[in-house]
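User: New here, please read:
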Amino acid sequence: MLREEGRALAVADPRRVALVRVLPDVSLANAPLYLVSRPAKPVPPRVRALHQWLVNHLQAP
C-alpha cells in the first residue's frame, strides 16, 4: 500500500499483481505530462522506448 500522510494512494489487490485505482472518478486526461530522467548519454533503450510510446499514444489528434 502506498501512503501519504496516512491516506492510501493505491492499494495492491492480492488476487492480482496489480494496483487498484483508488479514485476512479478522478481523471487527469487533460493534465500535462512530462517525462523526466537523469541525463545519460547514450539514453537507455528502455527510456527511449517509453518516450516513443508516450508520444505515439498520448499525443493530441
About this structure: Residues 31-61 form one domain.
